[in-house]
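Figure caption, in words: inputs first, then the predicted bound structure.
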Amino acid sequence: MDLLPRPLRYRATSGTAVLADGMVIAADEAAWPVACLLASELEASTGWRVGRGGPDAQSPNGIVRLRVVGRGQVPDFPGPEREAYRLSVRPGATGSAGATGSAGATGSPGVIEVTAPSLAGAFYGTRTLRQLLPPDLLRSAPVNARAEVRVQGVEVEDRPRFGWRGVGLDVARHFFPKDFLLRLVDLASLHKLNLLHLHLTDDQGWRFQVNAYPRLTEVGAWRRQSPAGHHREGRKDGTPHGGFYTQADLAEVVAYARQRHMAVLPEVDMPGHMQAAIASYPELGNTGERLEVGTDWGVSEHVLNLGPTAMRFCQEVLGELMDVFPGPYVHVGGDECPTAEWQSSAEARQLCARVGLAGPHQLQGWFTAQMAEVLAANGRRLVGWDEIFDAGAPTGSVIMAWERERAWRVGTQAAHAGHDVVMVPEPWCYFDWAYAEDPREPLAIRAGISVEQAYGLEPVPKDLEAPYEQRVLGTQGQLWTEYVPTPRHAEYMYFPRLCALAEVAWSGREREWLSFQSRLEAHLARLDALGVNYRPLAGPTPGQARTWGRGLHPGLHDGPHAPHPGWGPGAY
Ligand code: TNX
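Bound structure (TNX present):
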């Protein structure tokens, strides 16, 4: 049956149900939005007329019945139980199975039924159903004239392991057009991921239109050039790059994602990774120096000053961000913030004295607390990278544990300290790393995370005692885009590693690589139908492979990562 991610339980039954031209999706009012979505998807891919009917509708041409048994609503971050569903494909009366042509001739097409406690669950039932249909039916238009489709009988009972199943995209290092965000929502939600994390700002580009600060996108969205090859080569491409999303663009992405039961988590990275903002408004910096939007990768020394103007700026930016992104969480970054500029700034030292800090090294913690207050006043929770934990994270904030030397320790300690954590340890979740230490692989920041390695992630830290496990909200696949300039390249880096991550996040703790691998092979036909530029399991195609920089692969100079204590044979 090759379902991916693997459902909690399923059992193939005998016989088939039939769907044909004129089929009907029967739904109660609570399930109506999912019914309409499925109907339009099936209409596009089959060319059939697909009716929408009330809960008791019948059709001789096949029925998909959707039932929301709890209160139907669209929560922003649905929890696991809420996302559960049952899917049952039951054949019609004996005699119908042998019929040819329209199922209508037999009068007994069987029934496909999805039952769920929420609309989100009903949606996931329909994602599973789409995987039970021929891969062709994932296309945007019919390529085979089909009189009918037979669906193998099955009983599926399913719910996710984790409530936070994310895909992260850095749209700051390279700008990705809005269309790609919508496509990513389609692809990710087919894999039952429920969160799109957008890294909207960084040293090299500001992508979020802010009405109160128009220069952020007039100036900050554009850089003069980018590194050519690996940044350690020191070459530049001499080519301007940039782009930004209007608030309407992002509102559209949020609404589109919501229809597919994905929340969008916006990130404005502060107080480091702020050079594009400082280039737009020099008064936000520490030195008064006129900076340009970053043209190199790495960690910029230029960070936000934390005086009243800058603090008002942050507050107003977050205010506009919250208007566009209605979800309960807002990510304020907090990673990689060098303190050198604060150390040599008289104003930063005065600020420390005024608010009672021992020195500029405590400013990051103070800043994060201020941001948490702004968010809390609007009923939102702060999410930050794991550096905010070591700086003393505000109560109630969510820690995203990423850094390879730190992630497992911080994940464990943060859970002990009462924080919710999302585990995104680099050597499993950083899909900007090459698939392998292989010169055929396209240039990447470093090597290497194979699909099997990504599949081997166990998000709950080994040392975390059972009572704290619920603090681990989940995990996500991260795509940083220093070396990922196009949507096609992004697809290559995501797929099929994101398929593995989806199973880690959705399916139970027990994992079987061989089972996954064989389901993945079948699943690739679905990705083919969707036109995804995935990396074949055997390695890149000639069109995907590249040899960079005088026969060397500069991205691989760091070598493979050392095995981490959190991972090893038997970890899954
Ligand atoms: C670290 S993850 C970063 C990013 C880079 C990434 C490259 C994180 C919080 N900071 O700024 O893009 O590594 O892998």
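Residues 164-529 form a domain with the TIM Barrel fold (CATH 3.20.20.80).
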